[in-house]
Each structure stands twice: as structure tokens, then as C-alpha cells.
Write a structure and sequence with these properties.
Elements lengths: L11 H13 L25 E2 L15 E12 L7 E6 L8 E4 L3 E8 L8 E3 L20 E2 L2 E3 L5 E6 L6 H6 L4 E6 L1 H4 L11 E9 L12 E2 L2 E2 L3 E4 L2 E2 L1 E7 L1 E8 L6 E5 L5 E6 L2 E9 L2 E3 L4 E7 L5 E6 L8 H6 L6 E13 L19 E10 L2 E2 L11 E4 L2 E9 L5 E5 L5 E5 L14 E4 L4 E8 L9 E4 L3 H5 L3 E7 L15
Parallel strand pairs: 1-16, 2-5, 4-10, 11-17, 16-24, 25-28, 27-34
Antiparallel strand pairs: 2-3, 5-7, 5-8, 6-9, 9-10, 11-14, 12-13, 14-15, 17-22, 18-21, 18-23, 19-20, 19-22, 23-24, 25-26, 28-32, 29-31, 29-33, 30-32, 33-34
The structure holds CU-O-CU linkage (C2O) and copper (II) ion.
């Protein structure tokens, strides 16, 4: 392997511009630029024979008034595909982690113990919380060490998730299996007639793609233009997964926890799904959709209706990411994939209809915007800067509303994720966003050359010495430096020296 990382797929001009910084950056293991790849079609070819694993709900200790969870990062072995076991990582188990669940208003404390032989972090993706509790690259947990962030959960009911965020290593740590759901509940959502029995009619669907060798071991080097794009789809760590449906309506909490691949979900029999929530919570009203596009890090909750005895496959269909054909193929966008078989029992428990009104999504007030910032994503940089742990890129004043104008300035796929806040999409190239982007979001796909105006409000948790991140959630891009940092300060405040030696 060449020690100089060439970002595969960049134009020659882009590559030359990057040369110096790329050479100076740390070498990542397992990078290889493969040639272009064809489209994969697994429709009808997946042997659905494994019962879908449902991640257990994490045990919560509420005795002291705080909701306490314990997570142990550990290495293990997992029999995922035929041929043998894979070396994997998990939380409280060999692969993935339990589902954390807390109610709005609760104060949570999570004690993470790192039993791995390298440092990692856990980031609470989508959560509004103090920067020091965020689990980004400044909160590295060394082998054998323990980290116990605590915060008060104060945001609408939503399907959030957690995953590692060690600078330059996030793709590998997520790929090996660290991650899980974090469900936030609130009184409003609890009063709605929606399927909500965990593991029964309300199920996590954590979708990841991986590549295995003939011994069942994970391959960590199959990297195309945008990172690793695997040929085997796992749901909750299960290959060829079947879920036995017992109720008329089932709520799927879809999470794209892949490192680079996007999914364009739909049902194999052509019926629509009913989308009820996006990243940060319920939509104002249910949306009937043929396809739900989720790029890495994004979530959607959908309700699927089945007849007794029916079988239907959740699939990912080819998707328009705004790329050229070759780029699209290399990103997996031309693939057609069987993901999960839903098999309904001969008798189904009745379920109420999805309510016609779900939530009031208060629109953030554009006339109150204090600052507009612009972010261009290109060549694994944001505004031409490579991520630097010691540099604060943006200083945000608490209790203000900002517009972030974000765009992808070249022909690679990127998305954009902001820590600490949920935002709303004001416009897409000057037009109102499509309905599936009209609710709370924390991650949004950026097709090349399309301008997104995102509006967000920053509240509480000021800390001039500890930044939050924003970045592309294609983890290979993030690892290569497509990330920036912001601090939230009191009015008139200035960032403190955050030091460059954090991280590792
Ligand atoms: Cu899901 Cu900065 O991450
Ligand atoms: Cu990217």
C-alpha cells in the first residue's frame, strides 16, 4: 500500500490542490482505490433465513433520580455469514449495542468503559447536549478508561443513535460494529395512536453494508471513491433477516448506519410506506411515499401495513444522487438490494390507523436570523479547510437563530450533519423543500451544485473551550478531514484556546 493517501476519484486538479495536506495527514489502514464497480442486484437472491435480531433495550437504573446506563465497548466474534466468524466490536456484546431509551425531561448518565485495545468515543447523534458530553473527537476514551457524560434530555421524541467519533478512525470503528439506537420519548408522542411496542410492532432497522471474505471475516479494504461500499446488507447485524410481523401495522425505525452507502427504501410489492418521522422527530402529518432515501446517518420512521399471511420485502432501489453514472455505481447508487423480509402471521393483532395529525413542527423564524454562514463541501474539505482539532471554525452566540447555506461544490456525493441542534431545511436551490425534508433534520444529502439553506437555533450549553462538529457523514470523507468545529458562547463571548493535542 502506498503510504501517501490519494483521495480516489478526485479530479487531477483537486488532487494537486490537496497534495501537500494529504501527504502530511496520518495514514489510514486499509485504504485502496479500487477500479470502478458494476451495479449489484440482489433482488430475489437473498436467502432470508435468519430471524431479525432485535437489539435489547439497555437496562436503566433510575434509583438515584438520574437515568443511568452502562455501556462497555468490547471486541468479540460474530457469526454473521456462512464460512466462519467475524472479528467485530460491540457495546455490551460482540456486535452493535443495546437500544438506549429515555424520556424528555430525564437526566441521563451513560458510563462507557472501553475494553478495546485502542481509544474510541461514543457520540450521541442528533442529541441536544453540552459539548463536553457530545462524544466527539475531543472526548477520547483510552483503553481501560471510563467516561461518564450526563445531560438532561430536552427535545421532541425521536429516533437518534450513537456511534464512535475518533478523529480519522470513525469509518473503521463504525464498520467493525460499534453503534446503536437512542430513542427519545415524550408525552406528546406517547399520546398518539402509533405502534409502540418495542420489538413487536415498533422495531429498530439499523441498516449497514459490509463485505465478507470466504471465512466469514470482515473485509476492511474494499474502498471505492467514497469509502467502503459493501455487497452484503445487514439489519441489526443480521444477514438475510426475516421479521415475523404480528400486528396489522408495524413501525420501522430506519437508520442508515452505513459508512458510505445510501439506501432508497421501498416495498417490493410496490405499495407505499407511511413516513411519520424524520431525524429529529415526528412530521406534522404522515406522508405516503414510494421511496425513502436515507444517506449515511439519516433516519426515518415509517409505518408498514400488512395483510395476514402476506410477505413483503423491504428493498433499496437505485437512486438519483445527482452523480455521473460511474460515480453513482461506485457509490452503490445503481444497486438494487433486498434488505429485510417482513412475514405476516396468519392472524394479525389490530392496529389503529395512523393519526392524520402527528405533531406541530414550529417553523423557525427566518426574520430572526442573526448570522448566515456559508459552507462549501469539496475535495474532502469544508471551505477549503481540512479539519483541525485545535481550530475553532465558527463561533455561535447562544439563543440566536442562524442560517447555514451549505452546498456540495463538486461531483462527489456528500451530506451534511450538524451536532447539538436539529435544523429545518428552508430551501433547496431557492425552492421549498420536499415534504420528507420538512420536519426536524440533523443530516441532509447534498447533491452536487445544489444550495441548501438550513435554519437552526442554538440554545443553552455554552462552552467556549469545547467545540461541536459539523461534517460530511460519509465517514471516509469525515475521516479525511471534511469536518469543522463550532463553539457556542455567551453574547460577546470568545472561544477559548481549545488546544490542538486533543483527540489522540
Ligand atoms: Cu453521526 Cu459527527 O456524527
Ligand atoms: Cu462526503
Amino acid at each position: 500500500m502506498n503510504a501517501r493517501r490519494r483521495a480516489p476519484g478526485l479530479s487531477r486538479r483537486g488532487f494537486l490542490a490537496l497534495g501537500a495536506a494529504v501527504t502530511a495527514a496520518a495514514t489510514l489502514p486499509g485504504c485502496s482505490a479500487l477500479g470502478s464497480r458494476g451495479a449489484i442486484d440482489t433482488v430475489g437472491r437473498v436467502d432470508f433465513r435468519n430471524r431479525l435480531r432485535i437489539p435489547p433495550l439497555a437496562e436503566a437504573d433510575r434509583r438515584g433520580g438520574t437515568t443511568e446506563f452502562a455501556l462497555a465497548a468490547q471486541a468479540g466474534r460474530s457469526a454473521i455469514v456462512a464460512g466462519g466468524e467475524a472479528d467485530t466490536w460491540g457495546l455490551n456484546g460482540a456486535l452493535l449495542g443495546p437500544t438506549l431509551r429515555a424520556r424528555r425531561g430525564e437526566t441521563v448518565r451513560i458510563t462507557l468503559t472501553n475494553h478495546l485495545d485502542e481509544a474510541t468515543t461514543l457520540h450521541w447523534h442528533g442529541m441536544h447536549l453540552p459539548a463536553a458530553a457530545d462524544g466527539g473527537p475531543h472526548q477520547m476514551v483510552e483503553p481501560g478508561a471510563t467516561w461518564s457524560p450526563s445531560w438532561r434530555v430536552d427535545q421532541p421524541a425521536a429516533t437518534l443513535w450513537y456511534h464512535p467519533h475518533p478523529h480519522g478512525q470513525t469509518e473503521r470503528h463504525v464498520y467493525r460494529g460499534l453503534g446503536g439506537l437512542f430513542i427519545v420519548d415524550d408525552d406528546h408522542e406517547a399520546a398518539l395512536d402509533l405502534p409502540r411496542t418495542y420489538g413487536v410492532d415498533d422495531i429498530p432497522v439499523i441498516v449497514q453494508d459490509k463485505t465478507f471474505d470466504s471465512t466469514g471475516q470482515l473485509i476492511e479494504t474494499a474502498r471505492h471513491d467514497n469509502g467502503m461500499v459493501g455487497d452484503t446488507i445487514l439489519v441489526n447485524g443480521t444477514a438475510g433477516p426475516v421479521f415475523e410481523v404480528g400486528a396489522r401495522r408495524t413501525r420501522l425505525r430506519l437508520l442508515n448506519a452505513s459508512t458510505a452507502r445510501s439506501y432508497n427504501f421501498g416495498l417490493g410489492d410496490g405499495r407505499p410506506v407511511t413516513m411519520i418521522a424524520s431525524d429529529g422527530g415526528l412530521l406534522s402529518e404522515p406522508l405516503s411515499l414510494q421511496r425513502v432515501l436515507l444517506t449515511p446517518g439519516e433516519r426515518a420512521e415509517v409505518v408498514v401495513e400488512l395483510e395476514p399471511g402476506q410477505e413483503v420485502t423491504l428493498r433499496s432501489y437505485p437512486q438519483d444522487l445527482g452523480l455521473t453514472d460511474a460515480r453513482a455505481r461506485n457509490s452503490g447508487a445503481a444497486d438494487e438490494l433486498d434488505v429485510l423480509l417482513l412475514r405476516a402471521a396468519a392472524r394479525l393483532a389490530p392496529s389503529p390507523e395512523v393519526p392524520a395529525r402527528l405533531a406541530v413542527v414550529d417553523r423557525l423564524d427566518e426574520s430572526a436570523v442573526a448570522v448566515t454562514r456559508t459552507f462549501e463541501l469539496r475535495n474532502n474539505r469544508i471551505n477549503d479547510e481540512e479539519m483541525d482539532l485545535g481550530r475553532v471554525d465558527d463561533v455561535v452566540t447562544v439563543d440566536t437563530t442562524e442560517v447555514w447555506e451549505v452546498w456540495n461544490g463538486h461531483r462527489q456525493p456528500h451530506n451534511f450533519h450538524v451536532h447539538d441542534v436539529q435544523f429545518q431545511v428552508l430551501s433547496v436551490d431557492g425552492r421549498p423543500p420536499p415534504p420528507e425534508l420538512s420536519g426536524w433534520k440533523d443530516t441532509v444529502y447534498l447533491p452536487p451544485e445544489v444550495r441548501f439553506r438550513l435554519i437552526m437555533r442554538f440554545t443553552e450549553h455554552t462552552d467556549p473551550a469545547m467545540p461541536y462538529m459539523y461534517h460530511c457523514h460519509l465517514l471516509w470523507h469525515e475521516d479525511q478531514g471534511m469536518m469543522g468545529q463550532f463553539v457556542v458562547v455567551e453574547p460577546g463571548g470568545r472561544p477559548a484556546d481549545i488546544g490542538g493535542g486533543h483527540g489522540h
